[in-house]
Design a protein that fits this description.
The chain is an alpha+beta fold and 537 residues long. The chain folds into 3 domains: 100-127 and 402-537, no CATH class; 129-224, Pdz3 Domain (Roll), CATH 2.30.42.10; 225-395, Roll (Pdz3 Domain), CATH 2.30.42.10. The protein is 44% helix and 23% strand. It contains 17 helices and 22 strands. The protein has helices at 2-32, 78-81, 98-126, 143-146, 166-179, 215-219, 237-241, 263-269, 297-302, 321-325, 344-353, 381-389, 404-430, 442-455, 457-476, 483-496, 502-534; strands at 37-52, 59-73, 128-131, 135-138, 154-158, 161-162, 182-188, 194-200, 221-223, 229-232, 248-252, 255-256, 275-281, 284-290, 304-306, 313-316, 332-336, 339-340, 359-365, 368-374, 391-393, 397-400. Strands 6-5-7-8 form a 4-stranded antiparallel sheet. A 4-stranded antiparallel sheet has the order 12-11-13-14. Strand 1 (37-52) and strand 2 form a beta hairpin. The longest helix has 33 residues, at 502-534. InterPro entries: PDZ, PDZ_6, PDZ_sf, Pept_M50_Zn, Peptidase_M50.
């Protein structure tokens, strides 16, 4: 319920802020160009509040549907042209030069980009939280492995810029994958050796869409986490041994531990046996004894344990995917994604193959068949340790921050980079190199805004910046109805020396409206499918 409240409020506030900024861009430049603004509306539909200025006669409106907004100018639309007379003709939009009309058109998207730059600037001054870019493991025969990365390396530079967080590295790798570029990196090994690396994606085909492997996973990197305990699962081996949140594991069976992932091979090798654990707690060294449980991968991936030689569930691990999906002890798994389940090995095979992919699991409960949606966790060392002893790692956090002047440049570059990347993703959707499922509607945007708001004001501002630049990009698409379409007509007028005829505009507007409705339909369809999966319907 709390997340729902955050999502609804986060979405409404985000749309109100960003639409106001976009329309204010049109409004401000129109006024500077001497155009009379008749109405400034945030939202569509029936007005719930309005006020007419006594100074300039502009009507300011807050409307019922918070999915957009508009600025109505004298002489812009046919229904305003009958208001033109000799006294106000010089204030009419259609009487202004093409250059001034182009400036008014571009002012809305420009305002969105300026807001994004300002937001990133502020965030980079304060510092954006992230995880230090230290490599925990490198997959064999991966891009990272071929580039010479080893476990324990700390990435220090990427394309000549200091690498401060994994988020920074992740975005740069994503950009290179989409643009099919190579990137230069530098690292420092655990023995302080400086190394240079090249990740060459020039011939790489990376399909961007739901279910795609993340850029870091695709490249072969595993993120290093410190051996500090952030969570202890109730009833698991760690709690029974006396481990507590905040403990730092120093040794296992006299073997030194420097990262959370160092524990995995030792715990796995000694599953079912007693392991000596030396920890640091409040500056004091303490030795505990822990017995990792024996388990198969399925327990770590979805959090269930079967009855012997059965598909009936005897244990559901709290907080794991099966528990989150609503699975109960005693449920019998009968189908997964329509495939019949006869033995527990069938579950293992499907779950292991579909880690990170949402599955429809049909269970028999008290004679009734129920459908549950769950996403198996990706099989990582962190997952396996959680299943073995019941702990998760704290993140070795840092902040990506810059001086005031540098932060402004970084904010501007970030806005440019993300905007051009968004244009390229649209292009790849047309060529089917990216999934159309990337198009999100209001429900998924609200979910993202809500999650960001829950994490804190800094993350909410970050999401506002991303949504703002996305609105700017979308409005620049050369589709009649959008700002980009109007600008296209104005460029044609500039080239030919005469305005585009009303009949051509009408056809263009009809086509543009059709395209926008199709895009909106796709966004709502994607949201609908997402909601069905989210709520197990």
């Amino acid at each position: 319920m709390l997340h729902l409240i955050y999502s609804v409020l986060g979405f409404i506030i985000a749309i109100a802020i960003l639409v106001t900024i976009h329309e204010f861009g049109h409004f401000w430049v129109a006024r500077r160009c001497g155009v009379k603004v008749l109405r400034f509306s945030v939202g569509f539909g029936k007005p719930i509040w309005k006020h007419t200025s006594k100074v300039d006669g502009t009507e300011y409106v807050l409307a019922l549907i918070p999915l957009g907004g508009y600025v109505s100018m004298l002489g812009e639309a046919d229904n305003t042209k009958d208001q033109i007379n000799e006294d106000n003709r010089d204030q009419a939009y259609n009487e202004k030069s093409v250059y001034r009309r182009m400036a008014i058109t571009l002012a809305g998207p420009a305002a969105n980009f300026i807001f994004a730059i300002a937001a990133f600037w502020l965030l980079y001054i304060v510092g954006i939280p992230g995880i230090q870019p230290k490599v925990a493991a490198v997959l064999p025969d991966s891009y990272a492995s071929k580039a010479g990365f080893k476990a324990g390396d700390s990435i220090t530079e990427i394309d000549g810029e200091k690498a401060q967080t994994w988020n920074m590295v992740r975005f740069r790798i994503l950009t290179a994958l989409v643009r099919q570029e190579s990137i230069q990196l530098k690292s420092e090994s655990s023995n302080n050796t400086q190394k240079k690396h090249v990740l060459d994606f020039r011939k790489t085909k990376y399909f961007l869409g739901p279910g795609s492997r993340s850029p870091l996973y695709f490249t072969g990197f595993r993120v290093a986490l410190p051996p500090t305990i952030a969570f202890v699962a109730p009833g698991m081996a760690a709690e029974k041994a006396g481990l507590q949140m905040g403990d730092t594991v120093v040794r296992l069976n006299d073997q030194p531990i420097t990262t959370f992932h160092d524990m995995w091979p030792i715990l796995y090798k000694n599953a079912g046996s007693v392991v000596d654990v030396k920890i640091r707690r409040n500056g004091k060294m303490i030795t505990l004894k822990i017995t990792p449980i024996k388990q198969d991968k399925v327990i770590g991936l979805i959090g269930v344990r079967p009855k012997k030689n059965s598909t009936v569930i005897s244990e559901v691990v709290s907080g794991d995917p099966a528990h989150e999906a609503g699975m109960l002890v005693g449920d019998k798994i009968v189908k997964i994604n329509g495939l019949e389940i006869n033995v527990f090995r069938d579950i293992q095979r499907i779950v292991n193959k579909n880690a990170g992919v949402r599955l429809l699991v049909e269970v028999n409960r008290h004679g009734k068949t129920l459908g549950l949606n769950m996403t198996p966790k990706k099989y990582t060392q962190k997952t396996y340790i959680g299943g073995l002893i019941g702990v998760s790692a704290a993140q070795d956090t840092t902040k990506e921050s810059y001086s005031i002047l540098t932060a402004l440049g970084v904010g501007a570059w970030k806005t440019w980079d993300m905007s051009t990347l968004t244009f390229q993703v649209f292009g790849k959707m047309i060529t089917r190199e990216a999934s159309v499922k990337n198009v999100s509607g209001p429900f998924r945007i609200a979910d993202v805004a809500g999650r960001a708001a829950e994490r804190g004001l800094d993350w909410y501002i970050y999401i506002l910046a991303v949504i703002s630049l996305s609105l700017g990009v979308i409005n620049l698409l050369p589709i009649p109805v959008l700002d980009g379409g109007h600008f296209m007509f104005q460029v044609a007028e500039l080239v030919t020396g005469r305005p585009v005829s009303d009949s051509v505009k009408a056809v263009g507007m009809a086509i543009g409206l059709g395209l926008i409705l199709m895009l909106m339909g796709l966004a709502f369809y994607n949201d609908f499918v997402w909601l069905l999966a989210k709520f197990g319907m």
